[in-house]
Amino acid sequence: MLNQIKIFLFIVALTLLSCGTETMPIETSSPKMKSLFPPTGSINAPVDTALSITMNTWTRKGTGTLGIYYYDTDVLFESLDVADTLVKAIGTALEFKPFKNLDYYTKYYIKIDKGAITDITRNQNLFDGINDKSIWNFTTTRNLPKLRGLQPANMQSNVSVESELTMIFNKSVKTGTGFITLYKPPLIVIERHDVASDNAISIQDSIVTLKLNKKLSLNTKYYVIVDSAAIIDKNNTDNTYAGITDSTGWYFSTAETDDPVVTEFKPANKAQTVAANTPISIKFNKKVNPAVGNIELYEKSINAITFTTSVVSESVITDETGLVAIKLPYNLKFGTSYFIKIDSAAFVDDGGKAFAGIRDSISWSFTTEPKPTSDQNTFYTVMSGEEQGTVIMTGNQYITLTTSDSGAFSIKTVNVKYFQGTSQMYNINITFITDSTQQNTFQFENADGRATISVENLLKKVTYNTGAKGFLNISKNYPDYVIGYFTVTVCEANAAKCVTLTGSQFTVVK
Prior knowledge:
There is one protein chain. The chain has two helices and 45 strands. By secondary structure, it is mostly beta strands. The protein folds into four domains: 33-140, Immunoglobulin-like (Sandwich); 147-254, Immunoglobulin-like (Sandwich), CATH 2.60.40.1220; 262-368, Immunoglobulin-like (Sandwich); 379-509, Hypothetical Protein Tm1070, Chain: A. The strands form eleven sheets. Strands 35, 37, 40, 41, 43, 44 and 45 form a seven-stranded mixed β-sheet that branches.
């Protein structure tokens, strides 16, 4: 029996050795194209799309170029060396993304050099390439108007019964054909407005406003339907807005009372790890005016007022949208819980109806972030209005630059970028104030709503003490509407460390 086992093991060993020395077959067929993205003949490809070709085998990058051409003229749009980092071999696919976005509503075709793609066999068989415009071509999407914001916001509650309906688009628009209809669920028509003839609809560049014929009802849900092609591109009537076609695209509910009510706190109620220099604001469902009363900031642990101001002081700023900003003269303490009280009737609407006030310690409370350790040297940026998203405002955009210690820092760059606006000439003033007597203002003229303005050379050698404040001001000849953002790069005084602070998006409406 033992001898039989030895003979069996000897045969197995010989078999394994013979398999290990057998020469692996060499694949000699070239890789074949299996699928394309965007598919050939397709339309509405995004202008920022990545392109990919999937093969019937695993691939690697070879040598050669990938060319993107205008279909109608055979002019080269862009060429990519397959060795570029923008070209990636992933499994059976080769993916690549152009350096710049494609043009809107334009037909392209793709060429690929022979050998730009190979398989992963030892023979590295070459893909034959694409040299015929009929093999891979597609058309990009139109530059259609798209919504950037709604007022009232979708799903908003406590909306004022005196509200107008406003749509903010990404480009200049005008009315087309169709209707904007206000419904009460399930299908009750409240108001129906023909966009082509109704004077209740007004357009200011990219902002469409519908002034309702009647006040809304209290404690009621509504939704809005906007017909496809009711709003169109101002400069190209073929580019139509897709519309809002169901009851979930834009719906809201009105307040239970006609008195001013709060729709948003900043910081949010019960928020944790709030920045020590966070902006403080309260948003109402309608425009309010300061009346008589105080706003009080309490430190919760000692139940004591740490800041108080009359609502008619310069520390309280209101605007037409119902936003009330509260300017503190100093940063909050790290790792501290606060709550805010507001006197009843401190704010009233235009009809004299009063805000009920906040007279307890739980309706608006928050806790600041822990104190940074000394080696963190954290920089902050604080801006009035929204931290994220679109801010409707008519005044200055403020920032505060603060280090976690008392060291000085310098402003290295300030970049202001407008990604939507008119092409009118307008001035940009950037002012940094170091104290009550000294300020440095830099003014720029810009005729392109999508330009970037850098002031690196002007500000590089200017040093400001910690807590320096500044503001961006769009002067009185700014265009009717502009959306943008700005960034600030700050450095320690010795330039040992620099941090770029990205400012929140803002919108200026004339």
